[in-house]
Amino acid sequence: MKSFISALVCPKCQKRYDHREIRHLCECGSPLLVEYDLAGAGKQVNPLAIKSRPASLWRYAELLPVLDTSNIVTLGEGWTPLHTLDRLGAQYGFGTLYLKDEGIIPTGTFKARGAAVGISKAKELGVRHVAMPTNGNAGAAWSVYAARAGIAAHILMPEDAPLITRNEIVAAGAEVHLVKGLISDCGKILARSIPAHLWYDASTLKEPYRIEGKKTMGYEIVEQLGWKVPDVIAYPAGGGVGLIGIYKALKEMRELGWIGEKLPRLVAVQAAGCAPIVEAFQKKAAESQFFPNSQTVAFGINVPKALGDSLVLESLYETGGCAIAVEDTEILEAVLELARTEGCFICPEGAAVFAALKKLRAGDWLKAHESAVLLNTGAGIKYPGALSFDLPYCPIDGSV
Q: Cα–Cα distance between 92 and 342 in angstroms, integer?
């Protein structure tokens, strides 16, 4: 299977770069996107051919950036289940409600997709050291895949990031530095450190390949629905790379002729305690503003200013989608509701999406006959501190 990657392109100024060289941001400061020869790819691969391939994200290899398959670093990531939430769908009047469960992927979150493709391409480019700021899960995934590739990882994370992900990063052999502040503070420190060490900057959207791994969620959703698109795809947006990637995948499939012209309405879900994309969307702005004093139980979406905010907002505007915020209390209620009603113990970020979809259905933005996909980005067990319960004790010499 041959990759049909053709160039790196700036979506802002249209400047093009050679994909065989290490590149980060465009000279104008914008993230770069990977471009493919879709006409050529369409002659070599089609949905029927993909159907018989192994169940991993690498089934879309022609539309991924790795030229030599010997450079692929994999732990079996991708092809996660698309569950139908029948009880909750009926309870709240949805047409069809699906849950795309990324909690069963290696390292327990969807971050493994971006790490698998990003590390594979870094290996192909001869990178020996990668560095990144993280709220936890991305750093864990990149550290694990870097270890598998034999690449050193250097990670900066907020001191109050989840202990479980910190331990995962350390166990994978990465160099870890804790920061008194937010992920944005980690990013500022790293930006000052990278030139001195000549590390490969794997920060969100500062390398072009993480998004290529994330976009495979879009390919999978459409393939799992019989190469038909749902009416709505809702996603928890921190850095928003997954949403940008899904939009990119949809446009690629449309150009390939694998789907029709109509695209799903994309929804960016944020916590009320950190909602820069929501505020920008409400103002019909092209970019967001820094969100001060951000705080939420959904730690993965506590990103006060995303580098790719303009691309996230573009995906919402161009598909007729929206951005919506939910309270932390609604998020925690949704975690319990999904677990108790559907047996799905998901992360707070994914639960935020369910809480948001309930609001959109109650307000009739999402119609009774429409289908919606809820993106759960990680396993609930990776957030042991999110819930707490007072349980009765049973005396050893007594009975219940």
A: 14
What is the pLDDT at residue 74?
Answer: 97
Domains of the chain, CATH where assigned: 82-109+210-382 (3.40.50.1100)
Closest CA to 348 of 44, 127, 116, 136: 136
Mean pLDDT by 10 residues, the chain (400 residues): 95 96 95 97 96 96 97 97 98 97 96 98 97 93 98 95 92 96 91 92 94 98 98 96 97 98 98 98 97 92 92 98 98 97 97 98 97 97 85 74
Amino acid at 179: V
pTM: 0.94
Handedness of CA 34, 317, 89, 91 (dihedral sign): positive
Residue 62 CB-density burial (10 A; 0-12 exposed, 13-18 middle, 19+ buried): buried
Amino acid at 182: L
Sorted by sequence, the CB contacts under 8 Å of residue 331 that are 6+ apart come out as: 271, 296, 297, 298, 348, 351, 352, 355
List C-alpha distances in Å: 330 to 243, 271, 326, 345.
22, 10, 6, 15
**Residue 42 to residue 294: CA distance in whole angstroms:** 44
**Residue 386 confidence (pLDDT):** 84
Residues 120, 68: Cα–Cα separation, whole Å = 10
